[in-house]
Design goal:
86% of the residues lie in helices and 0% in strands. It has six helices and no strands. The longest helix is centred in the C-terminal third of the chain and has 55 residues, at 116-170.
Length: 173
């Protein structure tokens, strides 16, 4: 997440320029150059991957349908990238609860047999796993919230770029 944070940069004006230039080149029949123009935009991984695919889409017809498909694919890639954090946010506390309940059996047996040392050891394990599970869940949830916001913004930028390209390509019709 730190790596992604440090590599994030958003230059909306530059994205507008690149999208307009790519659409002009595609309209002139220079689809390969348009694809290279889109690839030149330095952006987060998810956005640059989508822009590369959009650049390839400008070479084939129907362009609008392919651009829409690229947006949908980008959205699916972003959802997939969020899955580990989503799973960690849910599974961390579940495992913490399991780690709490499992040592409680031996702790209760130790209590019934008067073995306070055994009971105390098992309770320490039980409470430690609870805390660890909650910490894991909290960290994953925080990462999920932040990355979701980043990806929503990226998707919004991609939709904006597609709208610019569509309007420029449609100017000839």
């Amino acid at each position: 997440m730190i790596n992604e944070y440090t590599s994030r940069r958003r230059m909306l004006g530059e994205l507008e320029d690149v999208s307009s230039k790519a659409a002009e080149m595609a309209r002139e029949g220079r689809a390969k150059d348009a694809g290279l123009a889109l690839e030149s935009y330095k952006s987060p991984y998810q956005v640059s991957t989508a822009l590369k695919e959009m650049g390839r889409s400008l070479e084939k017809r129907p362009v609008e349908t392919r651009l829409e498909k690229n947006l949908q694919d980008a959205e699916l890639r972003m959802a997939k990238a969020l899955e580990p954090a989503r799973i960690g946010a849910k599974v961390g506390p579940i495992l913490g609860l399991m780690g709490t309940l499992i040592p409680m059996g031996p702790a209760l047996i130790g209590l019934s047999q008067g073995d306070i040392k055994s009971m105390a050891d098992n309770l320490v394990i039980a409470f430690a796993t609870t805390v660890i599970g909650l910490v894991v869940g909290g960290i994953c949830y925080s990462a999920l919230v932040v990355k979701s916001r980043w990806y929503r913004q990226d998707l919004s930028d991609l939709e904006y770029a597609v709208d610019i390209m569509r309007s420029r390509i449609d100017e000839t019709k």
